[in-house]
Structures
1.
Amino acid sequence: MSTMYRVTNPATGEVAEEFATATDSEILAALDRSATAFTEWSQTSVADRAAILVRVSEIYAERAEELAKVIQMEMGKAVPEGKGEVGLSSAIYRYFADNAEAFMADEPLRGPDDGTALIRRKPVGSLLGIMPWNFPYYQVARFAAPNLALGNTILLKHAPQCPRSAQIMEEIFIEAGLPEGAYINIYASNEQVADLILPDPRNHGVSLTGSERAGAAVAAEAGKNLKKVVLELGGSDPYILLDTADVSKSANTFFKTRMGNTGQACNSPKRMIVMDDVYDEFLTSITEAAKKFTPETPDAEGSRLSPLSSIAAADRFIEQVQDTVKDGATLLAGGKRYDGGGAYVQPVVLADVEKGMRGYYEELFGPAVIVYKVSSEEEAVEMANDTPFGLGAAVFSNDLERAERVGSQIDSGMVFLNAPEGTREYLPFGGVKRSGVGRELGPLAMDEFVNKQMVFTKN
């Protein structure tokens, strides 16, 4: 039987391993196992569920080197960055273990003296997670940790290029003591998701992190079957530099942030909006940084410019850049593939990008820096909001009140002031507009797939 689940080394383009796509009967059996496990898992005490998540956290920390090398092979992440991702995943499981009881505590309601009322949080059932390739462990952790803490059970469909890490995550849960069926890795096809899982009454919701196209398709199927969704989709996050005492340092901070995971992050700052009095110096500094940034093999210590996730991803990235330049943008660095094969691309710096160009509205999912010049706060805000996306934003100024004033006007789910965008286990993650619906991480994560049951007792 042919399969779409395979490990292809993006540094070489060679297929290293293949995994069989699940049959329809295997998918139905997984649904049954997940629903059956829910009966036991949902009745397990919160403290006992938390203890298992603590052990999951410990296993991630213990196996960090091994886990990092797995995703190096699957999607090209440099080993140091892979270790960082594993560490963040470990912290997420620990965070929800430590806070599950507080987040699930009954919430009293105030009212007249005719009775007492409260909100009680209860799990809803078996959930489907559809996860992307760019952060194989972290994306799963931010969905799985809060929902397992709640008492929900999970079917996890990972990206087709991450089958080995997907299998290992299931093994870690089993090793940590999770009951059989509470977390099941499935090598499902898109058709099986639409035709078998979402229509099945044993499924109670779906969380997807991925493209707009995938999110729209899954949301349509979920809506047809009256299933709740959480969607974390694309981003074209603005990074606004209002003023700075050190232009070169500001440029290097932005460049380092943008190049994380080789630019393949939904909340990566993709549009640098710079005030005109520092624009020229900033553009020169960031162009110099890009030209010095050369590729390394993903296993090199300290390497950050790894290959993109696949040859196809590299081809699309270069096509987007070339089309933007053909339409009149100025290419200051990069724009080509590196010799020697694999999915390596040169870091790109673009200026003079205008409306109507691909680079203005499309998300460039790779090592691309686009720099815009503005002359006022109002122009900066207008440009920041001129996007179909609304995931995150960052605003920098020596005057915190100025940064706060501008940041409060940005249409996004997250705003960082005088700090590069980043992820922490306690900060809610999610966006508005075409960046999706719902929140993950932090205290809001356990308010998504939950029955907020009202209980009233008459006096």
2.
Amino acid sequence: MEAERIPGIDPTATPSGDGCADCLASEAPGWWFHLRRCAACGRIGCCDSSPSQHASRHARESGHPVLTSFEPGEDWFWNAETGQFLDGPAMSPPTAHPDAQPVPGPAGMVPPDWQQHLN
């Protein structure tokens, strides 16, 4: 029997990488506080506390409103359109950035006064 499909969540979508795709791709690489994963396509973005808020921007611009945590030990889903937490299926691995990756990250890109830059 096939599992019930939840709109906006594709459990087979693999993560785009270990860090925020947009922060890492910018000319002056950015940094993040926590990471979020698009539940529809797997794109990794930085959280709303991070300076650039790429995960929410992706949700708005792509029409993929459901995000899930990409932090070790977290397995929640959030609908960025409705502002509600959701229950969802197990996502394909990896379900978090590597344990050795610092938070905030990435290593070497976080300013010493990073707390002053959080939203």
3.
Amino acid sequence: MRKIGTGIVAIAATTVLLAGCSGGSSPSESGNADGGSGGTLVVWTDANRAPAIEAAAKAFEEETGTKVELVQKNFEDIRNDFINQVPTGEGPDITVGAHDFLGSFVSAGVVDTIDLGDKAEQIEQVAVDAFTYDGQVYGFPYALETMALIQNTDLVGEEAPTSWDDMIARAQAAGAERPFVINTAGQKGDAYTMYGFQTSFGAPVFVQDASGSYTTEIGMGGPTGEAFASWLGAHGEAGSGEISTTIDYDTNNELFASGTAAYTVQGPWAIEALTADGVNVKVNPIPSAGGETAAPFVGVQGFYISSESSNKLLAQEFLTTYLATDDAQRALYEADPRLPAWKTLAAEVSSDPVVAGFLASAANGVPQPSLPEMGSVWELWGAAQAQIIKGGDAVTAWNTMVTDVEAAIG
């Protein structure tokens, strides 16, 4: 199952010092807690984003007198290294990271809150919500990823279907061999990819409170969850067959790229594969199957401040003043293209219809929960969906899964 924010190519860890920087030092040995000049601000990043951060860091150095040390890390190592090193004083002042690191960071006590101030108005709300935990904002978000409906315009045109039923009818009228395909991770089930359809029944995995933070209350039980499960079974292998456990990620993309399938649900990372054979595509929001708006998961990338940093005020100033500009956000986008959370940049790059389509889908979406409890949910949730798709008793399988999840999270 693909988790947002973990698809960055691994690189060897190296250290990059900006021009004029002295040797690195740990947060506890450098900088001033009162926000004065001098010292060193240590920032963990990956190789892709380092050049973009360098430009903002250079201006920060010149204007504050504080040197910035960029430490290049393998993105896959950042979560564990941050948790392990921050308590020892060897971690950074700032690290790049995915929002789904947040639950484990808060539980470990290694991350500090951040005041976005008026810059919050420049950031998509779903991105701010993603970095919100128990009503507190813990990071500076800058980029999004989400799922959307991809359609073969040579078969079904560019118009967005108004519902699941409308989508299937359009594909059938066009004579598509397969109206729709979706990755189910083979026999494992893929609750992440399927989530837009589930939420269209009003059955979120966890309930969100008024601040946008997730609670540990399961939201996918009861009649709404049962309705989704029944729908899933009706369109599974024992039903109309649009959803099958024979479809994994690569098979899904091949069926669409070959022109066999008219529609699929995928993320921006798959566009190259989906269009490899020359299929023309349009990206639209996921259509509703249950009557409510389909709200796919949104993954968010951003920056965290260490709870043990001696430079917290300087770190916040760097993020909310030097990275929170059109130029800095554009540099990050050009270095590592992801859907921008910065509104003015999002409007600018929406001239690309593929980007515009994913941004429209993200506007309907919700953050993937960053709760540590999600670790106990994925396998049970996916397995229940696979069982239902293969023809198992839908309501029984679903309610058993909900009970098992509630027991697993205590």
4.
Amino acid sequence: MRSTPPAETFPAHTPAASQIFTTVLSQGPLTRLEAARRAGLSAAAVTKAVRPLLAAGYLVETVDEEAPPALGRPANLVQVDGGRALFIGVKVTATELIGVLTDLRCRIRLARRTRLTDRQDAAVLASFTDLVHELRTGAEDFGAPVLGIGIAVSGDVDRAEGAVRYSPFLGWRDVSLAELAAKSTGLPVTVDNDVRALTVAEQWFGAGVGLSDFAVVTVGAGIGCGLVVHGRVVAGAHGVAGEIGHVTVDPAGPPCHCGNRGCVEAIAGDAAIVRRIRETTGAEVAGTAEAAALAHRGVAGAREAYARAGEAIGRGIATVANLFGPQRVIISGEGLAAYDLFAEQIRDSFAASAFGSAAHCDVQTRPLAFEEWARGAAATAIQSFITPDDPPPSR
């Protein structure tokens, strides 16, 4: 819940105006006729919608120099002026804050990192406030206002309330993060689950542009999943839709921190892989880098741990494909650093577990740095600015 009014309100006072702006933002530049077609609106509705956006400088018109010669005046292209406004996105991990300053088109202009030595919410908030101040100082060179902040946190996050209900990696429960962050910065704040935030960025600016149904699956410390169904990011009635990390794929498998056994995350999460290698090899593996190095050297127990992880991930992705029938599944996350160790098992397990035509789902890998996750947080801030009264995650 944003507790301070925005410094500037977006001049789109109808759903059609927001829809047209979002279409041009993610797919532009476009002619007005093409924007109308893609948004499913009439040409008259588009003309009415773009007028205040052009007047306020959020949209600009340019001549389409690449259009083939034709009688009469060449068609104008409508595009978003990315320099019109700036936004800040912050990804919170257990060990650091990753912050970015983006323009209105979510292009990263500045990036900063801050180490966390204390995970208590008050200490993290103090570090966050300092990071935001640093980014706002840097924003002065770009000559545009910072109009919002997005924060991405792993775990159970209630975006509508701006609250972190539970984040296992931070040890937080019921932290009203949006309210606290808005008070400390004086800017409107949007808080969302980190995977959903990344999904918003992929929907508007990445591999999901133009798709009505797709999923983002992240592998690493946790196993997450963001879902877009009929063009909307799905949060579910309780904000935890897409938690394939806690789908049971082996009832006799290892215990998971959620209380169940054999969850995808309990087999394929970074900590689970390291633990399995320690158990099977007796080696004192310090972390994922050592685990991957052992596997690359051909140590049987290490290779087996990654193969087992790949099988679990493939089954989890097949579950998503079977239930929702997405056009595409995008695999990302820091765990892709070792993707070559379990890629084959993911593909084979997915093919074996996907039902019928679900097996034809386009499965892609997309390695993304943590700055891209912070960019996802900025995308949620942009989204909230454009559609403040219509929270995108469906309930």
